[in-house]
Amino acid sequence: MKILNYIVLSLLVASAWVGCNNSESLVLDLDNNSIEIDAAGGTRSIKVSSSDNWVASASVPWVTVTPANGYGCRECKIVIDSALTTEVRTGVVRIAKTENSSEFKEIAIRQDGFDYSISLDEPEVSIDNYAALEERHLDVRVRSNVDFDVRIPDDVASWVRTDDYALTLDRGLRPREVTVRFNWGINSVPQERIAEIEFVPKDESGVSSDMLARNDRLTIRQNAAAEIKRGTREGDSVALLGIARTLGVWGDSWESSGEKMDNWDNVVLWEEGMDGYVDSLKGRVKSARFYMFSTKEGLPYEVQYLTGAEELEFYSNVNTFQLSLSTGEYICKLEHLKRLTIGAYGLTELHEDFKNLRELEYLDLGSNNFQRVPDVINPQNFPKLHVLRLANNQRRLIYDLSNNISTNFGGFYDETAHNGEQFGPFPSRLLKWTADEANGVTGLDTLVLSVNYLQGSIPSFEDDNTIGYYTEQDIVNSADTLPRKMLTVKKVMPQLKMFTINLNRLTGPLPEWLLYHPSLDWWDPGTLVFTQEGKDELGNLSGFSNQPANMNYYYEVYTKKKLANGVGDEDDTDSSGE
Q1: Has this prediction a pTM greater than 0.85?
Q2: What does the alpha-carbon distance between residue 423 and residue 542 come to, in Å, rounded to a whole number?
Q3: Nearest Cα to Cα of residue 320 among 392, 376, 272, 271
Q4: Sheet harboring 42-49: ordered strands across?
Q5: What is the 3-state secondary structure (H, E, C) of 162-177?
Q6: Cys staple from 74: which of 70, 109, 149, 253, with CB 3.0 to 4.6 Å?
């Protein structure tokens, strides 16, 4: 039996040898003596059988054969590289006997070029209406062999934008992949919105859109927002929870407390008997306070639904010195708001629609990063405003402005910055914000400008014909509390009950209108007016050249005030107050 097996095996080996050597000529085992392949390239196999040694060679560098030589029967792989251009290219692989190079066979190779194309892995994506800021983006993988621009329609540019990206075409027209990040905004309306975004060749690429064999568009579908019932108690409670969530308010949430909105901390609801109460407001939010939070955006979109609120306060954001934020548009929709605080938030600008808050009576923008007093803050836009607080807008503390290389450090620096010849003008428009009954302007009674970077001197208005002097009628109307000296003093902000400007970088003389202002004794001037800090841009030590040592000079003029202020003896024998 074993002998029989050996005989069969020997016959099989002999048969194989005859199959490889039954011809003295070179044989290629191919259906066709040609290869056609697309631009991406790839590998093709051929079978070589020969009675002798053979060698394979390619006529072009983008084709390789492995193994490149052999003996007898062997499978070879022809590796074709990726194309580099849009043109068709050809080459030849030759397999020849080494002892007789005139005996050979050739394989013709034809490779297509790359078509110009811009293709996306996912041409259509869906996103939520809301996510935390750091999660509010999507990454789109783009394959292209032409440099491109992302074209975002104007009507969606307000909620979709791209980060910088760069397509590296370092291998001819072989497609390369780049990830384009799209940042998206919150959808605050209860309707789906769609963005159709185009990818188009850059002008300098020399490729036009009609040359593209494939050009995908990106469709972004954003879910609708949950509907908040405007003008209802239910809508107010949903809005409050949404605002707290978006801001990232610290501590226990109202939602987790399990309490009704009536018992929520820092929320006051409308009740009968309150000033301004009407039946439609019953149980709705009258005021709310949001304190200690972390956001890098303007005020949340849910704010717009608190239409019954008279007062809102947003205070104490994280790392405000690093931020440059706008209020955003949503707060601007509360046209009946009377009191607003946006403090320590990181603001550097107010939205252009901020002027719509014409009912404001109280505005506190303290502890932000403003370089200038926003132009929108003026009596024409806010005729009922009587309290304006703009304290501590220093992004960072700079004691000596003459030894400083920092920029964008807040404190209304741009208002009075030195231009090489003189300091810029003091924001005197604020000091002219007086009552104007004819135009319905209430006038400021409180102006707070403490702890900023105002420089130069406080204007005297002596050459300003738009501001007159106190008159005899003013003295009569004051029930004889105004001294006659005031007839030679400019009538600047006579209605001011509180004025603070301490810890700026002011120098020069104190103007008479301030030194003898009817309410100066109530301003605590030794602390909140006269005291300055640091050095200005010229290296001058801040402080006023005529700063009084005490208030005696004032009570010598306002003789009827000295007892009320605890100055002087009860017998009133010494008009100097000493």
Answers
A1: no
A2: 14
A3: 392
A4: 27-29, 42-49, 74-80, 63-66
A5: ECCCCCCCCCCCCCEE
A6: 70
